[in-house]
């Protein structure tokens, strides 16, 4: 009886274990796009030239510190974008505290020449790596990263170039994504492909047409996951909410309709409520952040020991569980 009882309790405890421990690693806040709903890494506010170890000029990007960062580090002033060595140290630290999955994001992560090296480093350390890119630098870097990623994530917010522009994307986004999906159709990848769409007042009537483009275009790679994001008034989005915002019920209705129209698609919806307390971020200057109605720094990864980090992260157990649930779509076949 006791053994059965213990087994039952063991099963209940196992059910509470997050399947993954996911951290979003923002390589940079720089991006070739300036989407009006972006809530990725902050954009650097300044830069300076430094001489690196080999005697070459190196441009260093600087980020303003937030109130929480100053409270943690005890220092004001700007912090530089991390070097390759610093990023590798942090990836190793994250692995040591039990992180299983890194989302490599930004800004546009492939703007940094160090990104393919970090992806390989994380993969070789045994981490699952998901690359979230806007696709602009795909041709330049894809062959360097394709063997080390589990998923490539790409955006598409309209079924036409014009709808993407109306959403605030650059005019070349549509053509780039079309080109990448055609390339992957002809060269089937080992990794999975995810397409993400921000659903807003502007494109809500076009979402079904995006599905037609993704799932009914001959010769194109069909995404393993189509992830629908409810527009969220965070960061830049907060200034543009009147133009973009949709209600929870409007979002739910779109998702239900699409699931009926595209039964072959794995559609994964992320409402604003799902976003809340469901992420850990590494900022380009090395802070660990969480997010509720705003992003909050909780540790300086560059100076916090692995032991202290374990205990800090341990106090965000719910965030770990929600972050894992939020990325269940990574299991798609
Ligand atoms: S492409 Fe992504 S990271 Fe770049 S500005 Fe747009 S939403 Fe932000």
Protein architecture, described:
This protein has one domain (19-42, 82-332): Alpha-Beta Barrel (TIM Barrel). Helices cover 38% and strands 20% of the residues. The protein has helices at residues 2-16, 67-73, 84-96, 115-124, 138-145, 161-166, 173-186, 207-215, 236-239, 241-244, 248-261, 272-275, 306-314, 317-326, and strands spanning 22-26, 46-51, 57-63, 79-80, 101-105, 128-132, 151-155, 192-199, 225-230, 267-270, 280-282, 287-291, 295-300. The strands form 2 sheets. The protein has a 10-stranded mixed β-sheet with strand order 10-9-8-7-6-5-1-11-12-13. The protein has a 3-stranded antiparallel β-sheet with strand order 2-3-4, with no helix packed on it. A hairpin with a 5-residue loop joins strand 2 and strand 3 (57-63). Helix 3 packs parallel to helix 4 (115-124). The longest helix is centred in the N-terminal third of the chain and has 15 residues, at 2-16. The two termini are 39 Å apart. The mean pLDDT is 93. Iron/sulfur cluster (SF4) is lined by residues 31, 33-35, 38, 40, 106-108, 134.
